[in-house]
Amino acid sequence: MSVLYFILLICVGALAAYCLREFYVRFLNYHRYEDAYLANLNEAIERHSENLTFESLVRRNSWQGLKRFKVARKVVETQRQVDGKQISDISSFYLEPLETPLPLPGFLPGQHISLELDTPDGPLLRYYSLSDAPNEQHFRVSVRRALAPPHLQENVADGKGSGFLHDSIEEGTEVKVGMPTGDFCLQTDIDVGTPVVLLSGGIGITPMLSMAKALAQAQPKRRVLMFCGIRAAVELPMCADIDFIAEKLANVDVYICMSAPDGSVPELLPRKNVHIVTGFQDGRVIEGPDGVGCWLSIELIKEIVGDDEGQDFFLCGPPPMMRALVDGLYFWGQPREKVHWEGFGPCAVNWPGDIINSKLRPCAVSFIDPGKGNSRVYLDWRPASGTILDLADSELQKVRKLKRMCGKGFCGECKTTYKGTVVYDKPPVFGPLKENECLTCCCRPDGDIVVTVNA
Ligand SMILES: Cc1cc2nc3c(=O)[nH]c(=O)nc-3n(C[C@H](O)[C@H](O)[C@H](O)COP(=O)(O)OP(=O)(O)OC[C@H]3O[C@@H](n4cnc5c(N)ncnc54)[C@H](O)[C@@H]3O)c2cc1C
Ligand code: FES
Question: 437-439 and 449-452 as β-strands: parallel, antiparallel, unpaired?
């Protein structure tokens, strides 16, 4: 009996202790627990939503205008021979902020930044696509040295900005950087599930690397077809990034298409999903270093991409390549909203459907040149001529090369005066413009006009 009493006593004691503890926690210490819990919850929600919504990432530590950054790392990616000397051809620059706190604002892969360089001749503004996936620590840009065209080498200097970056910017140098911007971008925060086809020529690979690396982080199962057009193996930059993409994306195929193979292959790890294409004959894709050469053509792309699964196509490369591929995609039947392209500067690439349906009529554009005693040059404009700058560029023997820089209505460098009416595909970012001013890189004439040469 006494054992039973003893057990009962222990149970009552335990119950009383439990009730006392609950009383203390719930009633005496309740607010402390509740406050701590709510604080944690709020913090978690904040962290969660900050991580998830693109808008909040972009707003994070964002700025206006240009801010000081330093080059934390400079990497020579490829080299080339010029006059018997080996010089850097493509270099990457890792930029870390000096004035704004980390983490860096987010961006959509494909977007670019503006970079102000402090050259001996004064500040120089240039635009560069971000070549890495969004990350909190640095922006990376990869810059190709722009040499003077071979037939003009006697009279024309090499590119100022890229030359300065390659030759005078070292680790530790300060540059000024604008916020990432641009509408050539892949929406990695929304998984629509359709395949993505990335088509690049030469240095046009930079936004594609950013897109593919961002997909590897955000949507690693998405189907990705990446085509990189180069002449020979030595020209392929950032092989480590391509290895990373081939490894981390579960459903990717990379096609390196060489137009002038010299028997060597790029320094990539051998993988089933990386194809070195050197020939395309009678609908047959030839892989390996021994083919006669393969251009990035629409026939090759159709052969590899296959059936229409609602793919989104992204293109960046030299204007002739983009013109051919944009035309090819149109005649293949791809919808306008699925084809996205970006030129690294003014480049006349038109969607054929826009030309066919254009409400603008053929007209005359007369260029009046104050630098040549107000002499006049008359050119015929048709919807296929593109912008006023495209038209002037098509007749460089007649019209002096007009000023330009971004080719997209951002910088105002191509601003000039005109008489008549012009239209813009979309309102330019640069502004406000006076009534008689236009941006030649992004407007078209609506009827006969007179444009002042601003060379
Ligand atoms: C949105 C965007 C993204 C970009 N992303 C990249 C990128 O990721 N990587 C990259 O390398 N570039 C990129 N660019 C291009 C970059 O902004 C520069 O245009 C490029 O580096 C050349 O600038 P530069 O100052 O070296 O050449 P510039 O001094 O502007 O000269 C350009 C070229 O014209 C030639 N030239 C000069 N004067 C004449 C003349 N009178 N007649 C004929 N030719 C002449 C020069 O020799 C040179 O080849 C991008 C551009 C844009 C708009
Ligand atoms: S070239 Fe930059 S706005 Fe026209």
Answer: unpaired
